[in-house]
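Working notes for the structural subgroup meeting. M.R. asked for a predicted model of this chain before we commit to crystallization trials. I am recording the input and output together here so anyone reviewing the notebook later can reproduce the run.

Input as submitted:
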Amino acid sequence: MLTTTVAGVDSPTVAALSVSFRRTLRSENKSPRTITAYLSAVEQFARFLEGAGMPLALASIRREHVEAFI
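Returned structure, recorded in token form:
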């Protein structure tokens, strides 16, 4: 799912923004290994949220969700 509706507004998901994040990392000339590591962490976070039944839309993700992942 690329977007989720939160309070009547479409909010991008973590997974949807990873494509943009990859472009940003490449434009900053990050090494391929750095890009792989960063995107792996994003993917793990998205899988964790989904598996735990936590929100996937960025507008709904809160500190406690990130802390639970860490």
